[in-house]
Design a protein that fits this description.
- By secondary structure, this protein is of the alpha/beta class.
- The protein has a single domain, classed as Metallo-beta-lactamase, Chain A (4-Layer Sandwich).
- Helix content is about 25%, strand content about 25%.
- It contains six helices and 14 strands.
- It has a six-stranded mixed sheet with strand order 1-2-3-4-5-6, covered by helices on one side. A six-stranded mixed sheet has the order 7-8-9-10-13-14.
- Helix 3 crosses helix 5.
- The longest helix has 10 residues.
Length: about 230
Amino acid sequence: MIFKQVFDQKSSTYTYLIASSKGREALIIDPVIENVGEYIKLLNDLELKLVKVIDTHIHADHVTGASKLKDITKCSTIMGHHTPAESVEIKVEDDEYIKLDDLKIRAMYTPGHTSDSYSFLMDNYLFSGDTLLINGTGRTDFQNGSSKDAYNSIFNKLLKLPDETLLYPAHDYKGEKVSTIGKEKKQNPRLQVNSVDEYVDIMNNLNLKKPAEIETNVSRNINLGA
């Protein structure tokens, strides 16, 4: 397997490139439109063919590079079944598998940050989107977000995975690249709660500013960045 993690400075977004070393087929998770040239160079340098691109959800803080990548490489676009993006080619269900040569990636419906949020699990690599972050969790105050849904997604789905599962989120704002489920259970301050009500109370009092270009980004991302 080939695995690369690419960071976008402006939005603190992590994009992931996964490929089969056997058939040289590649998949990209959460691409940022400004970095498409970098992804294409990486694919060419590694002699890979991009066949699929996944967005974990409709992002509010950057524009996806999915449509641009499709135009250049003819790859298929993928999102979870609950996405409002009508132009996405493949909508996967909860627990459905995406195949990439000999690799299998499991789609997991994990709403809360947004109503269309999915996480993706490949072996012991968890790509959690904005649902579970390193030492944090995704905000739940816009895009049909729900703190109760987030609690259920995190505590009853993601934290049920083995402790050694590697956590790769869609964002990090402090330079962290990877964690584990076990580490987050012990150290993530948002997870040190005893009930759903306690979690909801924390999330309701974050008082975060909305992303500067949220309306533009969301409307473009519903069209996969086109």
